[in-house]
């Protein structure tokens, strides 16, 4: 058949040449012809290679689809631009910000004094301690980095603490020791004024003790009267008469249990006054101290025996006979949980449940020691004797820093959380400020009690000093004595019932074993080089 006119078929070569000519007219060729030659016969490839650490890694590039659903050419370059979000500047504003430099680059500096306050000791010298194993060196270096980070974080977060301590500031020519409790009570707010009160009772002299969070108070009279109450709201928790002499009282880990050292044995009661345990091994006890992180009840008796009882399991950890006579002076160091005992020969001995003999024995006075106290940091120790002397000691070097002569022998001394020292002399209570670091000539506060003082305790997290005497007890207002900011995970004065249970379970799980009580707590983090070498030699001996 003959094809119609104008519909003759052209050869394929002519059709291709005309198509390329039309494309050349519409689109100009690139200036760099060598690029065109390279990409002319190149197939689209969605992978790229990357050299990393001597090996070639191939990765698949994501495929982007255009608006009409087709995949764009691999040679085409697509730019995706998003509109600036609210609160952000456009391109012009971003360029301006890039040109402007920060006048204060980096983090804000931390004062050196604040860093020293939160410092946790010196860094470990790996070469000096002989740490040769690479794994141990890496582990210790990581630990030092974490400690340094924690110190910086604690020092930087101090600005978030809302409360500050406040002291009495006298006018020119006046002295704060002349200010009475009546004047302080009339000058403060109503809530603080209710914290100053007097209780007149007839079963004294009284021993007193505060709970760790400062909320509850426990008193015990020598004639058998025992009472526990919330001293802020004056709400009575329990009250009883044990019908025999009471020498000392102590709260245990929380307000549900407390211990009473009675005439013959030691008893443990709950918050309703019901007898829970009778510990006959702790007989004729004179003084008691509770170690909260170890759950140990430490006691001394009139025969010179020192005992540690684990109240979580009811197990006697250690009983040591000191051979130093009657032990009626006792306190513990909050830093390392070491017990400090005062003796009739003017010496102060320090004890741990791991040794039969004292770890430290100091000759502090030429006359019998009447009272011993250690501050919250565990650095300073105060001792008093019947020769009217009061001395401050540095427990790092065991040197005497200050020596004072009082009007009479101090029967009771105690430190507050902020370093104030309370001293009782007969029926007079004096409070000293900065006594450990400076030479003091006058007391910070002075208060007259109606009868002889038998017990002194500062209330934690409150500017209150509890005084037990022969006719009852009284509460003094001491501005600047307590820590203004408390850690709710450590001791919360406003904890609920569920929080108390959770805290009890957590503290039991994190209980420190008695074997870890040492004079220097930093020894626990050091490496015993000799034992490591011995283990290494044993392994190599069998390998050969």
TrEMBL record:
Signal peptide interval: none
GO biological process, one term: maturation of SSU-rRNA from tricistronic rRNA transcript (SSU-rRNA, 5.8S rRNA, LSU-rRNA)
Biased composition (Acidic residues): 95-104
Biased segments, Basic residues type: 57-68
Main location: nucleus
SUPFAM superfamilies listed in its UniProt record: WD40 repeat-like (SSF50978)
The protein, known as: BING4 C-terminal domain-containing protein
Organism of origin: Daphnia pulex (Water flea)
Lineage, top ranks: Eukaryota, Metazoa, Ecdysozoa, Arthropoda, Crustacea
């Amino acid at each position: 058949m003959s094809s119609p006119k104008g519909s003759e078929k052209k050869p394929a070569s002519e059709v291709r040449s005309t198509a390329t000519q039309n494309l050349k007219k519409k689109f100009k060729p690139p200036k760099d012809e060598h690029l065109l030659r390279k990409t002319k016969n190149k197939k689209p490839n969605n992978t790229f290679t990357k050299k990393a650490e001597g090996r070639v890694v191939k990765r698949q590039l994501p495929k982007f689809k255009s608006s009409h659903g087709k995949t764009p050419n691999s040679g085409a370059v697509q730019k995706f631009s998003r509109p600036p979000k609210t609160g952000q500047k456009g391109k012009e504003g971003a360029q301006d910000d890039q040109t402007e430099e920060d006048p204060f680059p980096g983090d804000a500096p931390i004062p050196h004094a604040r860093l020293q306050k939160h410092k946790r000791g010196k860094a470990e010298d790996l070469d000096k301690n002989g740490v040769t194993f690479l794994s141990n060196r890496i582990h210790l270096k990581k630990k030092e980095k974490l400690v340094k980070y924690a110190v910086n974080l604690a020092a930087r977060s101090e600005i978030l603490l809302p409360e500050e301590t406040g002291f009495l500031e006298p006018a020119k020519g006046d002295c704060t020791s002349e200010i009475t409790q009546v004047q302080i009570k009339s000058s403060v707010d109503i809530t603080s004024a209710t914290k100053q009160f007097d209780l007149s009772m007839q079963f004294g002299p009284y021993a007193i003790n505060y709970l760790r969070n400062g909320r509850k108070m426990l008193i015990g009279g020598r004639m058998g009267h025992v009472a526990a109450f919330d001293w802020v709201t004056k709400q009575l928790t329990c009250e009883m008469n044990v019908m025999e002499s009471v020498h000392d009282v102590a709260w245990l880990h929380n307000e549900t249990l407390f211990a009473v050292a009675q005439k013959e044995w030691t008893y443990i009661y709950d918050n309703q006054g019901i007898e829970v345990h009778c510990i006959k091994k702790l007989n004729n006890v004179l003084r008691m101290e509770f170690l909260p992180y170890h759950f140990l009840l430490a006691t001394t008796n009139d025969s010179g025996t020192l005992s540690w009882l684990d109240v979580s399991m009811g197990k006697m950890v250690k009983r040591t006979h000191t051979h130093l006579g009657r032990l009626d002076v006792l306190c513990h160091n909050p830093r390392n949980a070491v017990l400090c005992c005062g003796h009739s020969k003017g010496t102060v001995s320090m004890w741990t449940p791991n040794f039969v003999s004292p770890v430290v024995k100091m000759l502090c006075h030429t006359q019998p020691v009447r009272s011993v106290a250690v501050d919250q940091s565990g650095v300073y120790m105060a001792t008093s004797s019947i020769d009217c002397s009061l001395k401050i000691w540095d427990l790092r070097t065991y040197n005497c820093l200050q020596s004072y002569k009082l009007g009479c022998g101090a029967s009771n001394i105690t430190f507050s959380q902020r370093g104030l020292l309370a001293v009782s002399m007969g029926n007079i209570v004096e409070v000293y400020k900065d006594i450990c670091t400076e030479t003091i000539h006058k007391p910070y506060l002075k208060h007259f009690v109606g009868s002889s003082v038998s017990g002194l305790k500062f209330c934690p997290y409150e500017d209150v000093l509890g005084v037990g005497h022969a006719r009852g007890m009284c509460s003094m207002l001491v501005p600047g004595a307590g820590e203004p900011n408390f850690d709710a995970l450590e001791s919360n004065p406003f904890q609920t019932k569920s929080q108390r249970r959770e805290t009890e379970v957590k503290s039991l799980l994190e209980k420190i074993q008695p074997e870890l009580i040492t004079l220097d707590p930093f020894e626990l983090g050091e490496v015993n080089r000799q034992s490591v070498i011995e283990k290494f030699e044993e392994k190599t001996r069998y390998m050969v």
